[in-house]
Design a protein that fits this description.
Shape of chain B: globular
Mean pLDDT of chain B: 95
Number of helices of chain A: 13
Structural class of chain B: alpha+beta
CATH superfamily of the largest domain in chain A: Butyryl-CoA Dehydrogenase, subunit A, domain 3
CATH superfamily of the domain at 177-325 in chain B: Butyryl-CoA Dehydrogenase, subunit A, domain 3
Radius of gyration of chain A: 22 Å
Number of helices of chain B: 10
Helix content of chain B: 40-55%
Strand order of the largest sheet of chain A: 1-4-5-8
Helix content of chain A: 40-55%
Mean pLDDT of chain A: 95
CATH architecture of the largest domain in chain A: Up-down Bundle
Distance between the termini of chain A: 39 Å
Strand content of chain A: 5-15%
CATH topology of the largest domain in chain A: Butyryl-CoA Dehydrogenase, subunit A, domain 3
Radius of gyration of chain B: 20 Å
Largest sheet of chain A: 4 strands, mixed
Oligomer: heterotetramer
CATH class of the largest domain in chain A: Mainly Alpha
Low-confidence stretches of chain A: none
Largest sheet of chain B: 4 strands, mixed
Number of domains of chain A: 3
CATH class of the domain at 177-325 in chain B: Mainly Alpha
Distance between the termini of chain B: 47 Å
Largest interface: A-D, 57 and 56 residues
Order of helices and strands of chain B: HHHHHEEEEEEHEEHHHH
């Protein structure tokens, strides 16, 4: 066994770290925090210019052919830097899915523009009545000659207000089993009939509801077969970056440790010297390492040519549940002063623990809820009989 | 033994609940953010005589607890627990009280001339502060001039400068200033515990309603065993919390032997139960739980904030240990 | 509201406490611990002589007509004393069930002998394939004139080796829905064809498997209607004493506090002065009070003439889960010395925390598993739709 | 990065697993209670050269970890981790070692002439003890004379009287006696973490098999969502634990930067994961889980005992904090 990363991965990591140290300025972080939009066009295009949007892509797409280990290092460094990179994640997921399930035209016209940082995508899966049960999708697409006419509504269309395309799951056949009548489209956001309503969340992030009224798209925007949308969904799921939150966990702990080291109690003792504080910080540190290892295991398996389906799910489940537990413990150690929000004078830890406590709650929902993750691990990992209550 | 509300208390509960449903609806609670104060709600409670009802011996803490629980359930944007406790403390100092004036107390002694993060401090006309071993009544000047820092619970907290504004020394009739402040703080713990039970049960109700209505995979998600078991544990914890809060209030009203321990136990346990209930309910809402327009995020933020405004919950438990097991022996030299 | 007990309850409690202080000697406790039989005939008959086996019974049965509050005080004191009282619980349950569902002959001949402490009962519900799903009972009873012939096997027939009767659930009709073909019997243990095999458990308690081979019993031993056994079961369930473990939780905490007050660390500090120890002791103390209040609420409701079905279930669930958590935390504070068993020289807390850590595990199983309890609370208490996976 | 066992390690694992399956079956484990030692198992491992394999540089701790994990999975009644660590320590003290002799080390320094509850102490011919700042090799005389107190884990613990029997002073080649003991203790932590992962996964497997087979209400109880979710969380925790234990061993083998922290992290987390897995599996067995004749109670008792034999787990976490965040500042006077 060898837990060290190959020199070329460490070298790449150092390069990325140096870049991020320069470009992920406090201003970038503050702007994302203030707007709730976890995407920064400036940073995004600088990263594209470095070739890192396409770092994991083959040379024929202008990529650098980076390995899964290098890509994991890149993701980890981005999150460790605090960069707002939700947009990059979605763009990458859509591009990868197009590479597998897209048409030649899509590969030729859309992928290069995503990888160059020119265009941004958003995901249109969830609906008011289709959350974890995403196949319950009711947004209708009806064929009309070479076009499709789309009507419906999508929830949580994060980044819709910045995106050029929505990766849209629709129902094209209501008369078959629910997984078998779905079709995926990549719809330009400037198509008439699309409306965006902002949705503000407890964590400060902005998301959107998107409405689709008689939206007409050419059939060339269809991704995959007619009624083959579920297969495309499954492809896309593989590219969810499940260990991304490890970097956020580290930022949280670093913030809390720095605070506890400088803050003193009424008797002049450093807070970090209180056994009850030390115990919780240590527990958070252990969880962070477990999260880190579960994430790297999945990346390593991918590098070995294996499909880390269950293992990636474990990394996602563990990391996000641990993140919430740690935020809960660490805001407690701040005491009353931990209540002040970021930007308030004198806020403990500059209010970042408070912000994290609100933000982290959503991480067990998107990219597969903890309940869905547990079901996958139980059935696919442990081979337990399919639960009668989950599907 | 009688674990039911009296007829009068039931009537009080219903009156207050009706009032809050009308005047402190979720829309109004949301509209009162970020400050967390609604003058109309305060006026209504003042008209009912709630702030001083237990100050003159006319009502008990148990009666105030009935109001506090409804206030927690509706997240009523008023520092009613603080006012009730402070008015009792002032009465014990032979200081006149009234229902109109918003009053509060600093939970922790002032340090460096400042009482930090006083609940209700951003909207109170009078603040009782323990400073240098004395009880001070501070009138910090117009509320507009006070800094009300944005905070997790959208509560009207403020740092009170006890060197500015008018202030006067309070003299408790019996007991020291420190003892009387400790007494008020235990009353605050017990009543806030009750407030947290109200919040926790309202959060649980939101969760239960949601999972009964919300369908996924062709069935209500409330029929999923993992959902059911989680809610059953929370309902049990909240029933226990309600009993513990009720007993804490009763020990204070009757000066029963548990008066030294139950308020701290209730505050600790009810806070944990409420926080767990709000968190679970939020998560059972899926993505909707995080949307500002859904109510459960209001409960979620306030549950944690109401615990934390006093102290790190672990520190509270260690403080409780002092009451249960006696103080730490200091004779032997250095520790770890 | 009033949390004080009425003077007559306190007086009764004081009387019970004095009695137990005298009769629940270390010898009684040690003997129960050594044999694993949580029943002591000496103590049992002394209690009968005091009239406390029938304390809650009406005068016509020689009872004292004690209220549910007095009976809760009695139970609480018995458990606080550390008395081995499993037998008393089962005897009382069977007697109460007979009072409601028994025949005149059973009431006349069996109840008085139970209440006088003369005879003991055991419960024959569980089977190898019928645990929580007790209605899956396969032990067959077949009518033969005025007699029934019983064949089958029962698990966990605790106290069978001391009992005079087994309260035996059987299947009399295999052709109807599983709840509708059951019949209950009160079978004398000296009936030919009953065999008892001891079963030893991790907690030290002895239980039994009982085998029934062509056991012939007269129809007068049938309790309730033919095929009406499920109704009798439901009656019996009401008399499970669900808050009994509170007393054990108190004994556990008292033991740990006494130890932590006397034990000192390498620096000469009392263990109880360590914040990490104090925190766990305080947490256990809070849980004990919650358990106490949930138990008393159920008793108070019964005294008010209400049926505390969900509330009793909550008391059972909370108390036993808390008991396990507390034992887990409190054995930890003992450190390595907590590993020595009772009876070993120098064992921390005389080995009782170690013994409790093993013993308490079973409390979330018998008398309704935590899973069954949660289902009851969810469906009956919260009105959630029946889970498709639990029944 | 390579998270797989080497070909040699796979072969070692398979060999050892086959050996344990035959010689350390659950029946044999049970038969070895209460002492917790089976001489035939020891002899088998000695014949394979396991006790000294990592003492002379011929094998790594990672190789021993492969054996330790299988030993934990089978609850093999031998102090193999202790022996391997002690033989390495003795080698660093230029003291000859061999595979036949059962050796162990006292985890905590001796006090009052006694090393308390030494793992393997009841069956070891040689015990390394840190006493008065020195490393002592104690030969406590025939095992029959030693008191092996009955204990939760049915482990061959004993109190070692370091004033009786023969003893000699050990002199480490480099580093102080205290440092070398600390090093051995971290090796013990890392290998015991691996042992605990083996135990935890075996316990989980027992639980998974049971819920697949056991039918209630007409279906396997493994199809109940609450059961599934509980097992999924445990499987995840155990995978994390396995990675953490592997990394801890690797940091020691390679003297990587994490060598000062990972062994303690692994011991803490793997112990918790193993204990949770054993407890959950026991409870999923229903009443059968408590029967002595079912195997899961063997795992349940040993999981807790293996953690506790070192220290209160909370105290271990605080010790880990010292390594992660530096020692407690002692300059400022009295604490709370």
């Amino acid at each position: 066994m060898d837990f060290s990363l190959p020199p070329e991965v460490e070298a790449f990591r150092a390069e990325v770290r140096a870049f991020l140290a320069e470009h992920v300025t406090d201003e970038v972080i503050e702007r994302a925090h203030a707007t709730g939009t976890m995407h920064d066009w400036g940073l995004h295009r600088q990263m594209a210019a470095e070739g890192w949007l396409s770092a994991g892509w083959p040379a024929e797409f202008g990529g650098q052919g980076r390995s899964p280990l290098e890509m994991n290092a890149l993701t980890e460094e981005m999150y460790l830097s605090g960069a707002p990179v939700d947009g990059l994640g979605v763009a990458s997921l859509v591009a990868h899915t197009l590479l597998i399930d897209g048409t030649d035209w899509q590969k030729r016209t859309v992928i290069p523009r995503i990888l160059s940082g020119e265009v941004m995508c958003c995901l249109g899966y969830s609906e008011p009545d289709a959350g974890s049960d995403v196949a319950a999708c009711a947004t209708r697409a009806v064929r009309d000659g070479d076009e499709w006419v789309i009507n419906g509504q999508k929830m949580f269309t994060t980044l819709a207000h910045e995106a050029h395309y929505v990766f849209l799951l629709t129902r094209t056949n209501p008369d078959v089993a629910k997984h078998e009548g779905l079709t995926m489209f990549l719809v330009p956001m400037d198509t008439p009939g699309i409306e965006i309503t902002p949705v503000h969340t407890m964590g400060g992030e902005r998301t959107n509801i998107t409405f689709y009224t008689d939206v007409r798209v050419d059939d060339r925007h269809r991704v995959g077969e007619v009624d083959g949308g579920w297969k495309v969904m499954m492809t896309a799921l593989v590219f969810e970056r499940n260990s991304a939150w490890y970097g956020e966990c580290v930022r949280l702990l670093d913030t809390a440790v720095a605070w506890a080291t400088s803050a003193r109690d009424a008797d002049g003792r450093r807070l970090i010297d209180d056994p009850l504080v030390r115990e919780r910080l240590a527990r958070a540190a252990v969880g962070n390492e477990v999260a880190n290892l579960l994430g790297w295991r999945a990346a390593w398996m991918a590098a070995e040519g294996q499909l880390p389906g269950v293992e990636g799910t474990m990394a996602k489940l563990f990391t996000t549940e641990h993140y919430q537990q740690a935020a809960d413990d660490l805001i407690d150690i701040l005491g009353p002063e931990g209540l002040r929000r970021h930007g308030e004078p004198g806020a403990a830890a500059d209010g970042w623990v408070e912000a994290t406590y609100r933000h982290c709650q959503v991480t067990t929902i998107y990219g597969g809820t903890s309940e869905v993750c547990r079901g996958i691990i139980a059935e696919r990992g442990l081979g337990l009989p399919r639960s009668r209550s989950s599907r | 033994m009688d674990l039911a509300l009296s007829g009068e208390q039931e009537a009080l509960r219903d009156t207050v609940a009706r009032f809050f449903s009308k005047v402190a609806s979720a829309e109004r609670v949301r509209a009162a953010e970020p400050l967390g104060f609604d003058a109309a709600v305060w006026r209504g409670l003042a008209d009912m005589g709630v702030p001083t009802m237990a100050a003159d011996g006319g009502a008990t803490l148990a009666d105030v607890s009935v109001v506090a629980r409804e206030a927690g359930a509706h997240l009523a944007p008023v520092p009613i627990v603080e006012a009730a406790v402070t008015n009792r403390l002032l009465t014990r100092c032979a200081h006149a009280v009234d229902d109109t004036t918003v009053r509060t107390l600093a939970l922790r002694p002032a340090t460096g001339g400042r009482a930090a993060l006083v609940p209700g401090g951003a909207v109170a006309a009078e603040v009782v502060v323990l400073g240098g071993g004395d009880l001070l009544l501070v009138r910090p000047g117009p509320t507009g001039e006070r800094r009300a820092p944005a905070n997790l619970g959208s509560a009207p907290l403020a740092d009170i400068d006890i060197t500015a504004g008018r202030r006067s020394l309070l003299t408790p009739a019996d007991g020291s200033a420190v003892d009387e402040h400790a007494r008020a703080l235990d009353e605050w713990r017990a009543l806030t515990a009750s407030w947290l039970v109200g919040l926790g049960r309202a959060a649980l109700d939101l969760g239960v309603s949601y999972v009964k209505d919300r369908r996924q995979f062709g069935v209500p998600i409330g029929s999923f065993q993992a959902v059911q078991h989680r809610l059953a544990d929370l309902a049990t914890a909240l029933d226990g919390a309600a009993l513990l809060a009720d007993k804490a209030v009763w020990t204070l009203d009757t000066d029963a032997p548990g008066a030294a321990t139950f308020p701290a136990m209730a505050f600790s346990y009810c806070g944990e139960a409420a926080q767990r209930a709000a968190a679970a309910s939020l998560h059972l809402h899926g993505g909707y739980g995080f949307m500002e327009e859904y109510d459960i995020q209001l409960h979620f933020r306030r549950a944690k904030a109401a615990r934390l405004v006093l102290a790190d919950p672990c520190r509270e438990l260690v403080g409780l240990a002092d009451r249960l097991f006696g103080p730490v022996e200091t004779s032997t030299g250095a520790g770890r």
